[in-house]
Every structure is written in structure tokens, then in C-alpha cells.
Design brief:
Layout (H helix, E strand, L loop, with lengths): L13 H24 L2 H7 L4 H8 L3 H13 L4 E3 L2 E3 L2 H7 L9 H11 L5 H7 L8 H22 L1 H9 L2 E5 L5 H9 L4 E6 L2 H11 L4 E5 L11 E7 L8 H11 E14 L10 H12 L5 E2 H7 L4 E9 L2 E7 L1
Bound molecules: S-adenosylmethionine (SAM).
S-adenosylmethionine binds next to α8 and α10.
């Protein structure tokens, strides 16, 4: 194509701007993830540094660090003044502080790590072949950290739950993964005792490492095979119900595991039933592809409510980013 035939790069159409923004966003995710993964953001959050100082502190290749620095400045992640770069406190909160409600860093890292497996989409589209996550544990931990802190904050707001956990109760984490929520719960509610179950051998091995010196019991088991009865005050399912093949059975097993008056708490990304095109729903709508690749799909609010039909006081709380906390009582 001759140069004169190329479409003008500067278009006045809003659609063009939006689409162009998607390619910018792709690199934004990687600039943020690499800055976290390579420890560059962490270093810039301490002292302002020149590129040369950053290269030698991080012991990384100068050409890569230089390219990252100029991209990070252009993307507004770090600022530069008198030759020194720094990470502003507000950026630090969003990119590094896992407990901050505005924390987005884990999401960037999840997306970057997951994209390493997206070559498998070819197989999904051509033959419906799904693929278990293999970059998984690290990627999942990056993504669910935010959920955990959002759940802990919601528990602190709920007087009854907070008092129950503070006085000492029994909590079951169904699909506990690497056990990182249980570890967080234990450090906040030392008098309570915790059990986590998960069918993944890898996740359970990691969870047992975390639980070693704490009163946390980890069992390798799928939720469909749980036989607990009238034992727990709180049953938590964090981004795990979507993964269960027999959801009715899982919810029924959770109900049996609860004492009378106990609470089930489900944290899940839920697909909207309307407004599918709105900006606010775009992330979960895109994320459907990631789920489809793994052979999963997001549930809707209506589907979760149907699963909880035998519970009372079913409540949906929007935690943000299409993630909901659903609580219900036995
Ligand atoms: C996205 S991870 C969430 C892990 C953990 N709840 C967290 O918040 O970090 C989903 C977890 O559900 C587990 N899982 C999948 N199918 C399950 C089933 N049938 N019963 C229980 N857990 C299951 C997976 O092994 C995985 O560890």
C-alpha cells in the first residue's frame, strides 16, 4: 500500500479513539506488571532515583530498564523531576499496596501472566479444546488478593460476623487454593479455627506450607465430596463456585456443613444480566474469554440466587469491578 493510501492515524471518531486505547492499554498492563515483577516500582517507591541508580540497585539490564522507565513515565506510572524518578504515594497505593481498596496491581499481573497462555485460544476456537491454567497459582494469588481484603473489610463492617470471629468460631474455606485467605483471617481472628479444602494437589501443598504453624487444617478434596455436618459458623467460597462441576451439590454440602444460624459467604465475579455494553462491565465481558479457555463461565446473580434457594436472608453486595459478596443464612 502506498503511503498516501494509509488511513489517517488521527481520526475524530470516538470509536477509533476507543479502539486505539485498547492497544495502549495492552502495554499499560505489561508496564505495570513488569514494574512490579522486576521490583522497579518498589525501588522507586522508596527513594527517587536516576535511571543509572535504578539499574544498579535492581541489578538488571540497562537497555531493558531504560525502555521500561521511559514507558512508565509516558504511561504516568512514575514521575521524573531533575533527572530522578519516583513513584507517587497514590500510584504506590494502586500498584503495590495489596490492602488498599484501590489496589489494581494484582489484576495487572494476573492479566499479564494469563496472557502467556493465550496461544491456546486457537485450539478452543477450532476444536473446543479447553486448558487448565498452568501459570496458575501465582496468577490466581495476584488476582484474589483484592477479593480477600474486600471480604475482610466487609466482615469488619458486619457486626455479627465480626463478633463471632473475634470471640472464636469455626470457618470452612471451600476451594481455598493456596490458603492465603485463611492465613489473613488467622492473623486477624486468632481465636477462630479454620479448615480449607481444595482438590488441587499443587494448591494444597502450598496451602499446607502457609498453614504449618497455625491452627489451620488443609484437606485435599473437592467440594462435591465434603461430608461435614453442623460444624461451621461460616463457610466461605472465594472465586471457587464457578469452578465446581456440580454447583447444586456443592451448595447443599456447604449448607449441611453449617450449624443452624450459620452463614455462607460467596465472593464471585458475576456476569451482568443487562447493560452488557456499558464501560463498567467491559472487564468481566472480556474476561469471559479467559474463563472459556479454562472451560468455565461466570454465573449471573439470578443463577446464584437459585442455588441458594434453601437459605434465608440472601444478600448481594457489589464489591466493585463486577465482583460480588453474596451472603445467606442457614
Ligand atoms: C480462582 S481459585 C480461588 C482460590 C482461593 N479461594 C482464593 O481466593 O485465593 C479457584 C479454586 O477453586 C478450586 N476448585 C476447583 N474446583 C473445585 C471443587 N469442585 N471443589 C472445591 N474447590 C474447587 C481450584 O482448585 C482453585 O484452587
Amino acid at each position: 500500500m502506498a503511503r498516501a493510501d494509509l488511513p489517517p492515524l488521527k481520526s475524530h471518531s470516538a470509536d477509533f479513539e476507543r479502539l486505539f486505547g485498547y492497544s495502549v492499554g495492552f502495554f499499560g498492563v505489561w508496564v505495570a506488571h513488569l514494574g512490579r515483577h522486576m521490583g522497579l516500582l518498589e525501588r522507586l517507591a522508596g527513594n527517587p532515583m536516576s535511571i543509572t541508580e535504578l539499574v544498579s540497585a535492581a541489578k538488571l539490564h540497562p537497555r531493558a530498564v531504560e525502555a521500561w522507565c521511559s514507558a512508565a513515565i509516558a504511561y504516568g506510572l512514575v514521575s521524573k523531576k531533575k533527572g530522578k524518578m519516583r513513584l507517587k504515594p497514590r500510584m504506590k497505593a494502586m500498584l503495590l499496596d495489596r490492602k488498599n481498596p484501590d489496589y489494581l496491581g494484582g489484576q495487572f499481573s494476573y492479566l499479564a501472566l494469563r496472557s502467556l497462555e493465550y496461544g491456546a485460544f486457537e485450539g478452543l476456537f477450532k476444536s473446543g479444546k479447553t486448558r487448565e491454567m498452568s501459570s496458575s497459582l501465582g496468577a490466581i494469588e495476584q488476582a484474589t488478593d483484592w477479593d480477600h481484603y474486600a471480604f475482610l473489610t466487609a466482615v469488619r463492617r458486619e457486626k455479627n460476623l465480626r463478633q463471632l470471629l473475634s470471640k472464636g468460631c469455626r470457618l470452612l474455606d471451600v476451594g481455598c487454593g493456596t490458603g492465603s485467605l485463611l492465613a489473613k483471617m488467622h492473623s486477624e481472628y486468632e481465636k477462630s479455627s479454620f479448615v480449607g479444602i481444595d482438590p488441587s494437589g499443587k494448591a494444597v501443598a502450598r496451602a499446607r506450607g502457609i498453614a504449618k504453624v497455625k491452627p489451620i487444617k488443609i484437606i485435599k478434596q473437592a467440594a462435591e465430596s465434603m461430608t461435614f455436618e453442623d460444624e461451621f459458623d461460616l463457610v466461605y467460597l472465594g472465586e471457587s463456585l464457578y469452578a465446581a462441576r456440580d454447583k447444586e451439590r456443592v451448595v447443599s454440602n456447604c449448607r449441611r456443613a453449617l450449624k443452624n444460624g450459620g452463614t455462607i459467604a460467596i465472593v464471585e465475579g458475576l456476569l451482568p444480566e443487562s447493560n452488557l455494553q456499558s464501560d463498567g462491565n467491559r472487564l468481566i465481558m472480556g474476561m469471559q474469554l479467559d474463563f472459556a479457555l479454562q472451560g468455565y463461565r461466570f454465573m449471573t446473580e439470578r443463577e446464584v440466587a437459585k442455588l441458594l434457594i434453601k437459605f434465608s436472608r440472601v444478600r448481594f453486595e457489589d464489591l466493585g469491578g463486577s465482583v460480588y459478596l453474596v451472603t445467606a443464612g442457614k
